[in-house]
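Usage

Read records sequentially. Each one opens with the input sequence:
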Amino acid sequence: MDKFSYLSNMDVSAVEHLYQSYKSDPNSVSEDWQQFFAGFDFAEQLYDQDDANFGIPANVKKEFDVINLIEGYRKNGHLFTRTNPVRERRKYAPTLAKENFELSDDDLNTTFRAGTMIGIGPATLKDIIEHLEKTYCESIGVEYMYMRRPEVVGWMQNLLESNKNQPNFSLEEKKQVLKKLSQAVL
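and closes with the structure output:
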């Protein structure tokens, strides 16, 4: 268990009041709180909010943003499938919009190595999004990221992403699928 989990149960306004007291007179709070607030102030000085990337090059950060986008499609793409031709799908938030992953239109023509994660090699963000849309948001939705066995998750990802979730069944295989579906309904 996290040794600081008690902090999430505290009254924020009470902690804020203690902090304001500490800032005006450090001896006005207990020694435990003095140490806590001293660490808080130290971290605030050391890791200024304006330097949130801690010296990470912009291109590396963008690669990780694209990786997060890919993971977003893998985890939530099934929520945005087009499975009902009669009515529009219910809206979910947050969406899979690139802006939710700190990406923009300016990045669409940039090539990212993260494309290798989905089997298309280094590719532009535009191509990566098209591949993910075709794989995870068309008429066949697949939810599999909840599985606990990494080898099964990897197998599913490879199976889906290698053919954009568009299986190429032979006529005999299609007949077999139809037969099994018909049996399931009866």
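Summary fields computed downstream for this record:
- The mean pLDDT is 86.
- The CA atoms of residues 68 and 115 lie 12 Å apart.
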